[in-house]
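As a warm-up, study this chain.
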Amino acid sequence: MKTVLSLHAHDAPRVREALAQDAQHVDLVELRLDACSAEIGADLVRASPRPVIATVMPREEGGTFDGSLDERLARLAAASRAGARYVDLDRAHAAHFASLGGSAELIVSVHEREPRAPGDVRAELLELARAFPHAALKRVYRVQREEQCAAIYAGLRAACAVQARPVVAFSMGEHGHGSRVLSGVHGSAWTYLAASELVSTAAGQWSVEAWQRAVPPSGIDAATQVYGVVGRPVSRSLSPAVHGAWFRALQRNAVYLRFAPEDARAFFEGHARGEVGAAAQGFSVTQPYKELAWRFSDEASAAADAMESANTLVRTSRGWRAENTDAPAVVDALESAGARIAGARALVLGAGGAARAAALALHLRGAEVALALREPAKAAAFAERHGLRLVAWSERERERFELLVNATPLGSYAALGELPIGEHVLSPGMYVLDMVYRPRRTAWLRAAERAGASAVEGLAMFLAQAQRQSELFTGQRAPLQLLREAAELELAREGEA
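Now compare it with the structure written out below.
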């Protein structure tokens, strides 16, 4: 799949700066001529070091152009005569292309303005191809949920199989961010990127800089393997940074993305099964979908079965295998900090898959484990099966424990500053592990340090589980230092070192 640097041409000096900085990293340049004269637009076409797509988008199509049709066509005609490779016109006005002159080819585009589920994408694309047999085709959707993108990929694959001209299809918006990458796996001819230092021209675009960090140097193609973290939310996950770094070190044709579906089962069925799902090779799974991932799998490791949850799905010759790397990571993080687990009294706070993994891992290591949650009945069968004690949430501060593990979102950016256990309970000799790693130093960890307890960062556990995942994904275990450096670089990039 080719890449297109998409630029608003209203500020010619800034556009020239962006061309100098970013055009070398892309295959084409799209100039949005909504707010510049025909003469300036033509000059920018001639100044571009890459072939140009010229377009003028009226407000009713999502652009900023307010002029007449004649003025719009004049700008496109000037761009075509200046050497633009393509002129992009919406379907309703594509018939005017013949009047433009110059050497440009036609792109016929259809943009969805309101969020909706895609219809019959294959039928829509093939109908466009019949109506405009000599044009490149561009169909832009705006999905309501991430899982709806699978319909775009299926239709795109079917249309590309019978259409010789370039076909581009993806979704705009927050839920279509990943589709700008995955559409290339399924046949889309190109994707649009934002300049590193300028405002994007459409919602959901990747910047050139972010694209270079995420995508293999060879680009995205039909052989690109797809991995990702699935959860809700995942916008602050460090998984793409660390696994992406390992893929690059191995020079692997693979991409690792964030997925935040509302309906995770529909996501897995659409993105992991059938022709569309053939590219998917592995998923990291986080809350609230770890138990669902275990149920979705075709087979599971003994650890995943025991915990009834999976933080990893890996494609095998027999289907999808559920694994759980959380459990050993909890032990690694605590023991690396100096904790002695055998014989210790441990309290795990939380009710989800990560809490179950932590509780069982500590139990198997010889700790006396209690599990504190708001609705104990939900974990009653699990606790009884493994000999764990349940503690009502309201009673969690009444006893003293040597090991405390937070497996709730309390203290994360979603519940910033909240403590899973009050500071008055913390004391010297305790080991306090907070699975929350964004922010890196949570309020609870700071409270633990003030109380003289040993504070164990969630980042330590995250890296330990990611290292084991790296081996499941690639067959080779990534060096922990490589993963740590990638995580810390991403944290520094986001101002959270």
